[in-house]
Design a protein that fits this description.
mainly alpha, two-stranded antiparallel sheet, globular
């Protein structure tokens, strides 16, 4: 198969954007951005500026109308009237700063939850993470049909890699003085967010519920989905991927609004539940409990209010899933 898209110089890339209706303005500045950020990365931001077709029925591989009708608006190559290169850059910078703020909050949440998990399991046994009977049976005993391993086996393999790769002095000290395995309150310090959230998901319901209640959530299984979603959010941010209007694949379950009133804005709203604002609100909820004096909620609110002026393109915080009255609920 021959790849159809040719290599283009930076200048040719600008020519193509102008041909499609984008206003470039300062060409030298646009060239500088393309050289430092790249056409393909910026295209993820100006994709929202592209014209859309009317509703189209997608045909199947044989060119026939499928039994289950799927109607979509297809993005065209031309840009909406008033689209500028600077609009895309402004949106890119907003998104970059959004990710940095998210990472700041997730670091604090991750550290606090490491303590919660290690303290809870450590009270049962310093090596509870190795003991199947101290974990949920689905996690520790249910075997995968293909691998023949439990999720606990898989988790222990990842955990062993983290210990083996660690260059931390505290790991070396504990190995030399006490040998292996390491106590959970020591080994938790090498966990990444994914390792931590997976172990929480494998805990027994009694221990899960105990931790969840500290955060105003009565059901630990619901809280486990929060951690999985936050791990997804962390991975998006850590890999410098576009966040502001991303479709959230790992969506959390939500408790009743009777338990947490701010949940009401997302009940029955599929768009809001599939966008990042709900995860930002969830993060804000956790951080207010972990560190009530943190300035993060206000800093995030200030940043959201600085969303670029893109009304002429039909873009606003609604694309992030923010309810119309989000300021009063924040």
């Amino acid at each position: 198969m021959t790849y159809p898209k040719p290599w283009r110089s930076y200048s040719e890339q600008i020519d193509q954007l102008e041909t499609r209706g984008m206003v470039v303005g300062n060409r030298a500045l646009a060239l500088d951005y393309l050289e430092r950020i790249g056409y393909y990365r910026l295209s993820g931001y100006w994709f929202a500026f592209r014209e859309r077709s009317g509703p189209l029925v997608l045909l199947n591989e044989l060119g026939r109308k499928p039994k289950k009708i799927k109607v979509e608006n297809i993005a065209l190559e031309s840009f909406k009237l008033g689209s500028t290169f600077q609009n895309a850059v402004d949106l890119y910078i907003f998104d970059k700063q959004l990710r940095l703020l998210v990472m700041d909050a997730l670091e604090r949440i991750e550290i606090a939850l490491r303590v919660d998990i290690s303290h809870t399991l450590g009270r049962l046994d310093p090596f509870a993470y190795l003991t199947p009977t101290l974990l949920h049976s689905d996690f520790s005993h249910k075997l995968d049909r293909d691998s023949g391993l439990s999720r606990h086996h898989e988790w222990l393999g990842k955990h062993a890699q983290l210990i083996g790769r660690s260059k931390e002095e505290f790991v070396r000290h504990n190995k030399n003085k006490y040998g292996l395995p390491l106590a959970i309150w020591v080994t938790c310090e090498v966990w990444d967010f994914g390792t931590m959230s997976t172990l929480f998901g494998g805990m027994r319901e009694t221990e899960q519920d105990g931790i969840a209640r500290q955060y105003g959530i009565g059901n630990g299984r619901i809280f486990a989905t929060w951690l999985r979603s936050l791990n997804y959010l962390r991975n998006v941010c850590a890999h410098h991927s576009r966040l502001w209007n991303r479709n959230i694949v790992e969506q959390p379950r939500l408790p009743s609004a009777n338990e947490q009133p701010w949940i009401a804005a997302f009940e029955g709203n599929e768009h809001a539940r599939a966008r990042c604002f709900m995860l930002l609100r969830l993060t804000c909820h956790l951080l207010r409990i972990i560190n009530p004096r943190s300035s993060w909620p206000q800093r995030m609110k200030t940043h959201l209010l600085a969303f670029p002026d893109l009304d002429h393109l039909g873009l606003n915080l609604g694309g992030m899933g923010a309810p119309a009255d989000w300021e009063t609920q924040w």
